[in-house]
Design brief:
By secondary structure, the chain is an alpha+beta fold. About 25% of the residues lie in helices and about 25% in strands. A 4-stranded mixed beta sheet has the order 1-2-3-4.
Length: about 130
């Protein structure tokens, strides 16, 4: 679902989840998963890591996005805004003070992020080695 929609370098990297690592992170309280459902059917996920950032000692947890996805039929109206807002409230309830996320350039979400009060901070580059 997510991989087919947004991944690049598909000829080199295949989606293969290491459930063991995710379970370990969940057991440590690092993994944070929010799901979106429509009539009981899974239509979205937001997966983040909640960590104490060593650059900002003593300032609280920060959320680092691993992946997020909404099914195409849920990408209209304000569903995306409501989903992101719900995730943000969940992070705040867990003591997060800052969040980091990104979007694929070929799936530009800049307008949504600005509407939600996020600001662009970095540009990320990748390179296959």
């Amino acid at each position: 679902m997510l991989w087919e929609d947004v991944a690049i370098d598909k000829d080199r990297f295949k989606a293969k989840i290491d459930e063991r690592i995710y379970k370990e992170l969940e057991a440590k309280g690092v993994l944070h998963l929010v799901t979106a459902r429509k009539e009981g059917k899974l239509v979205g996920i937001y997966l983040a890591f909640l960590v104490l950032n060593p650059h900002y000692a003593g300032q609280g947890f920060m959320a680092f996005t691993d992946a997020y996805y909404l099914a195409p039929e849920c990408r209209k109206g304000n569903i995306g805004m409501r989903f992101f807002s719900f995730v943000e409230k969940a992070w705040k309830a867990k003591g997060c003070v800052k969040a980091y996320t990104s979007h694929k350039i070929h799936r530009d979400r800049s307008a949504l992020m600005k509407e939600l009060g996020w600001r662009a901070q970095d540009v990320m580059y990748t390179k296959c080695l």
